[in-house]
Amino acid sequence: MYEGEQLGWRVQAQRADWPGLEENQRDLLTAICIEEDQELAAVKAAASAKPKVSRGGRFAQGLAALRPVRRAGAECPGAPASP
């Protein structure tokens, strides 16, 4: 804690985003004994590499998953008749 601020999460964020920092930022952090955490950087890179799915995309996935569940002969108001 420094002047009432909790700095732990800020330091962790800087260490995780080390490759995204500019050279002078890395130099300043190294001067105060804060260095890259390669494990944190790898976790952050893996999380950002996952494809993002929109709300509409998630809804469509849910509908697709429910199609086989729909019972044969069950009437659904407003739905087209099944062949």
Question: Between the first and last Cα atoms, what is the distance in angstroms?
Answer: 68 Å
Portion in helices: 40-55%
Radius of gyration: 25 Å
Number of helices: 4
Instruction: Provide the succession of SSEs.
Output: HHHH
Structural class label: mainly alpha
Mean pLDDT: 78
The number of distinct β-strands equals 0
Question: Would you identify the regions where 5 or more consecutive residues have pLDDT less than 50?
Answer: none
Largest sheet: none
The outline comes out as: elongated
Q: Tell me the β content.
A: under 5%
Brief synopsis:
With 83 residues, the protein is mainly α.
List keywords for this structure.
51% helix; 83 residues; 4 helices; mainly alpha
Explain what this protein looks like in three dimensions.
It is a single chain. The mean pLDDT is 78. This protein is mainly alpha-helical and 83 residues long. It has a domain of 52 residues. It is elongated. The protein has four helices and no strands.
Layout of strands and helices, then pairs:
Elements: H1 8-16, H2 23-31, H3 38-49, H4 55-66
